[in-house]
Amino acid sequence: MSLYRTLRPGLPILIGASVMLSLAMGLRQSLGIFMPPLTKDTGISVSDFTLAIAVQNLTWGVLQPLAGAWAVRLGMRRLMVGGALLYILGLVLLATASGLVSVILGAGLAIGAAMACNGSALALAAVSRPVPVAVRSTVLGIVSAAGSLGAMLAAPLGQTLAQEHGWRIGVWGFVVLALLMVPAAWKAGKVDELPIPPKAGIGDTAGAALGTAMRNPLFVVMALAYFVCGMQLVFLTTHLPSYLDLCGMDPMLSAQALGMIGAFNVLGCLFFGWAGGRWNKQVLLGGIYVSRSLALAWYFMAQPTPQSTLLFAGVMGFLWLGVAPLVSGWIADTFGLRWQAMLGGVAFVCHQFGSFAGALGGGLIFDMAGSYDMAWKAGVALGLSAGLVQIAFAWWRPSGGTPPLPQPG
Q1: What's the predicted TM-score (pTM) here?
Q2: What CA–CA distance (Å, rounded) separates 188 from 127?
Q3: DSSP assignment letter at 277
Q4: Residue span of the structural domain in which 215 resides
Q5: What is the pLDDT of residues 307-345, one digit of tens each?
Q6: N- or C-end of the chain: fewer Cβ atoms within 10 A?
Q7: Residue 67 lies in a domain
Q8: Is 403 part of a structural domain of the chain?
Q9: Do 378 and 354 touch, CB atoms closer than 8 A?
């Protein structure tokens, strides 16, 4: 009850950002379920479809720091509402696609640009502002958890519509869901009415804030390790349906697995949001990367079954978006709220280069080798390396803090 009283003044912002993030993340994470019928219908290859997803992730990553900086000047409401409208346009282009160009424009460029405005960087920056520091990490975990609920709805709905009426009707179903993002983004935009507390030593310009962050070795290591996060997650959301189809599994299993990921992601985000307020966020991040890599190795080393697939999905779901409250929380604690979205976006560029590699690289490897063996082995090796390096650097600074900030003058 005390937490509710604490959060009550900012509830419209929290709810709006949660709904917006849930739909934005859930819809894009579920696009992979359309890959088998879409590629057959339009005559494009698996690597062609994954090129569109790779373009989406690269566009999202490149534009994210710019969106974070623009949010300071233009306000979050304009960006988030505009992003929601662009998201709808991208899905319409995908639903009416007849070849590779329209798939890349819709699923790639349009949705990628929209995610820079509706994804976790702006959503978590928005909900950081109306809550006290003492509960910030917990709130970031709650809102990140909401980001997984969209997949629980979108994946089964899209798969059911695609099986009964064709993949285009499935995408049109996604368009209807995306319409709800517009009022949610409008509500979340109320954050523009709140003041931003200053942070000493950060600077008043985007360049000064970026310079401070890039001189912090923990920020640099965290950003580089974020590459592996994107690579592993987008490899799964893009290629797991194709992998299960290759293994002769029921097509509905891929939708059930994506739904399972979404369900357990709720628990994972809540846990890591809570844990981030109590333990070293950098160590927790490294632990997530190592645990994911071990789960990937266990699953892909054996022939999949419905039971092992759902168990694997549950484990990966628990470790899925738990990184978001940890990264956003550490940046807010270290550098303040004014440039949180921009600095989160800078780190996210590395994440999206990893996403690009996970989507396109997995498709190219499959087209060349006829299997995903080389792809998952590379993901495991890089994940273990990144996780251990992140933990080592966090222990190098046992407090998980940062070097003293440079003072003006």
Answers
A1: 0.71
A2: 8
A3: T
A4: 14-190+204-396
A5: 888 898 889 888 877 787 888 788 877 777 777 777 877
A6: C
A7: yes
A8: no
A9: no
pLDDT in tens, 79-124: 899 999 999 999 999 988 888 888 889 988 999 999 988 887 788 8
DSSP class of residue 120? H
> Would you tell me how many other CB atoms lie within 10 Å of the CB of residue 307?
8
Nearest by Cα to 305 from 249, 236, 264, 255 = 249
The torsion region of residue 97 among left (phi > 0), alpha (psi -120 to 50) and beta comes to beta
Collect all residues with Cβ–Cβ distance below 8 Å to 23 and sequence separation of at least 6.
150, 154, 177, 178, 180, 181, 184
What is the C-alpha to C-alpha distance for residues 240 and 8, in angstroms, rounded to an integer? 40
The CATH number that applies at residue 323 is 1.20.1250.20
> Would 7 be classed as within a structural domain?
no
Each residue's pLDDT tens digit, 128-171: 777 777 777 777 777 877 777 776 778 778 878 888 888 889 88
Domain-embedded: residue 53: yes
Q: Is residue 193 packed enough to be buried (19+ CB in 10 Å), middle (13-18) or exposed (0-12)?
A: exposed
Q: 3-state DSSP: the chain helix, strand, coil percent, rounded to 5?
A: 85, 0, 15
Q: Domain count for the chain, please give it.
A: 1
Longest CA pairwise span in the chain (Å):
67
